[in-house]
Design a protein that fits this description.
mainly alpha
């Protein structure tokens, strides 16, 4: 067992204080309108993987990881700014920046990696936004976690977040959530394989129905989740 493997477990654990458990990624708005059922949830999460967080977030994570390995802080900031610009929904954009900034500050507290500290400084000085996939890519590079494992950890954690939100919203129960996560394994693997090695200029996302739902969440009078 390696320390890198343990670091991966630490970052993937819901106990890690990044705040991603507060996000439903639009699921709360769908739930309030009774527009999603248990048997439809997996299709929704798969759409996120294939058309949003896979080609955008996972691609950007990989680009940030490579820049971190090369000691290229400007490359990291470019990835950060590109993903920030690609996120159309303000609530989602800001939530990703907050959770990424939290992640960077926490990892910088126990890592001596100079580039991670430089990125944390850039976030503090507002030269970078701290987008969560970028922050995770830089943190994983600093901790020696391989890039493909970092991509898988990110996408699996995203799916866990969606499953957890669905559980708290009463859409599914614990057993159904675990079944969904197991069945999403091939989609997660495919999304990592297809996106984590792509250059930043091939990053894309196109899921307008999801974007609209996330915009509707911004208008809710009362919310359990921040997205």
């Amino acid at each position: 067992m390696s320390t890198e493997f343990l670091s991966m477990l630490q970052l993937a654990d819901s106990f890690f204080p990044a705040g991603t458990y507060t996000m439903s990624n639009g699921l709360e708005a769908l739930s309030k309108r009774k527009k999603v059922k248990a048997d439809e949830l997996q299709v929704l999460v798969r759409t996120h993987l294939e058309r949003q967080v896979g080609p955008a977030d996972c691609c950007t994570l990989g680009a940030a990881y490579e820049s971190a390995k090369a000691g290229d802080i400007e490359g990291i900031i470019r990835a950060d700014q590109a993903l920030y610009a690609a996120k159309l929904v303000e609530e989602v954009r800001n939530a990703s920046a907050r959770s990424g900034a939290n992640l960077v500050r926490c990892v910088a507290a126990f890592s001596n990696d100079a580039l991670l500290a430089e990125y944390a400084k850039a976030v503090n000085e507002k030269r970078a936004t701290g987008m969560h996939p970028v922050a995770l890519g830089v943190a994983c590079a600093a901790l020696g976690i391989p890039k493909h494992e970092a991509g898988a950890m990110f996408l699996y954690s995203f799916c866990v977040g969606m499953a957890g939100a669905a559980l708290r919203l009463g859409v599914i129960d614990h057993v159904a959530a675990q079944k969904m996560l197991h069945e999403l394994g091939p989609a997660i693997t495919a999304a990592v394989k297809e996106n984590v090695d792509k250059p930043l200029d091939l990053m894309w996302q196109f899921a307008p129905a999801i974007d609209i739902t996330q915009m509707e969440h911004e208008q809710l009078d009362s919310k359990m989740f921040i997205t």
